[in-house]
Amino acid sequence: MRTGAAPARWVLSHDHGFHAVARAQEVWRYRRLLWFFATQAFQALYRRTHLGWLWVPIRSLAPLAVGSLVYGGLMDVPSLGVPYFLMLLVATAAWSCFDGPWTWGSRGVEMNRRLVTKLYFPRMILPLATMAPGLAEPGMLLIALAVAVPYYAVTDGTWYVAFGPRLLLLPLIMVAILLLGFGLSLWTSLWQARARDVRFGIGYLLGFWMYLTPVIYPITQVPERFRWLMWLNPMAPLVEEFKSVVFGWPEPPRWALGLSLGVIVTVLASGFWHFHAKEAETAEKI
Amino acid sequence: MNSLTVEGLGKRYLLGRGTRSSKARARLDLKLFSVPLPWGRKAPSRELWALRNVSFEVQPGSILGVIGKNGAGKSTLLKVLARVVRPTEGRVVGRGRVVSLLELGAGFNVDLSARDNIFMNAAMHGIPAHEVEARLDDIVEFADLGEFIDNPLRHFSSGMYLRLAFSVAINMSPDILLADEILAVGDIAFQERCLQRVAEEGKKGLTVLFVSHDMAAIARLCDRTLWLNAGQVVQIGESPSVVAEYQQAALAATLRDDDDATTRTNRFLEVLGVRLVSSDGRPIGAAPIVEDVYVRIRVKVLRLPVKLHASIRVYVSNALIFTSGQREPVEFDERGVYDVMARIPANLLAETRYTVTVWMEMEALKNATIHLPEVLSFMAYGSSYEMRYKGGVLMPALDWSVTTPQPDTPVETEA
Hints:
Chain A has 286 residues and is an all-alpha fold. Chain A has helices at residues 20-29, 32-45, 55-74, 84-111, 113-116, 125-129, 136-156, 169-194, 197-211, 227-231, 235-247, 254-285, and one strand spanning 9-13.
């Protein structure tokens, strides 16, 4: 110990500036905390429940069953030749990469507020790690998909899925959606640490947002002349692209996808900047 | 080469905006954003400099004590050095790994085993797993955990918890260790081991910043001591002299604050000191909950006759918790030095910090009262029994029993 090279010198002052590389290296050095906070968030998820992890399939699949009954059955929403349930399942899998991870990521700082005022570590790890429980639902839905597709293949005699190399795009789309959730969490997790209103606000907002995204209906339900308006929602092209890859449907326009990716990059970059600028201040005020 | 150089350090807090002024009312105050409306002007915030113009240097291998009243900026200083709080002005240049013990077991998860917690606590200080692996045996041995290593912390006694926290911190081979009051709790034997270990590491170059209210520990342990008041450095130098001057000033200050009855001496009596002592008379910095402790007021009787009525008031964060006074006044027959002792029985205190105010009233001499506000401050700490029922400011051992109802009284069913 303390032999060999002189210990590294460090400086603390009001403004340490924003060095993206140095920050990234720091997060990497503390990467084990990702696992730690993720486990902690998972523990918080079903603490003091009797069903425990059984809630994961219940919570992901029950709304799907009800949804396909109401929208697909009663309201007869079209699904372009595939079973409505299958379309809803695929669209929900994409949407749930946004919904849950953002809600969870946003709680990261709030859940660990005591720790944040006592110890230093790169706090950016908090929103990132606490997104983990939000991954349970998309994971569950993908499993359901893996079961549903062969089931329909047997009963309907067709696979519905457009098998091919384009399916490799699916993980990329999911990552893009997760990054959007992470970028938003970088903003909202700091706010939420100071005011719990944000949590309710996000829940409320997500309720609307889902209806403005082609999750329970195909984009073709929107009249052609209003469709450009739909594409301004960064989630719409992503969810639609996800469905189009799975079912081989026509793709959303390139500009819409480009815009969506642009929004993600902007939200992420501004999120990093905001988090860096405000994390210390927030730690002092909570 | 300094281990730590602090130059003109300042930390400013803005306290709630002055919304009471009429000008300030013309704004929409949401908690997150306060939206200035066009017809209003932003009201100035009140500022508080928790630290201002603090400069000092610490040599590697030395122990710096930090003392001062509550709110003097001691904890803020440690938080700045621990990077929890960002300085407003000035800068700190340090060398090597900083490990902080700002709170007992901050970052421990009671659902995880001691082993997992060791790794996670190390990770929180940015220390790689292989380094912890190599040191695991040392950590377990120093903390005296034995076979409890795989038990969740939930089942640990407070003593074990403390030992683990300290052991993890010291075994991470820090270059700088920040300890807030931490060494003042824990049983005496363990305290001694901690201090010994700190001294050993000091020889290898460990620098320690040690905040405490326990002046005896500061004087014994620290090479030099920094005295803060209202965020500014009053003095820094050899521990015994700084501690002596601090105590002098603290005692004198209590006298100036109050308008009447505020001297530590009057014609009859001089209060030489107020200390917390164990049942065998040793001064201690913290009170073990399961043992009797005494508040010892050492007085010098200057003139006879004196009929003294001593009492104490005990506070927790400025709330009066209890008072206690002598039932009968004592009469002194001879001049000389006496110890007035108040026994605080075992199993009364809870795990928190207490502040004691002393009143010395002379019978029939109203104006001669000696009042010593906040003259003593100490922590109480517990054992496994108390860990189970935590919280509150007192934890008295009540008499519990179970009986059957008397046959002639009707049995009531209570909701």
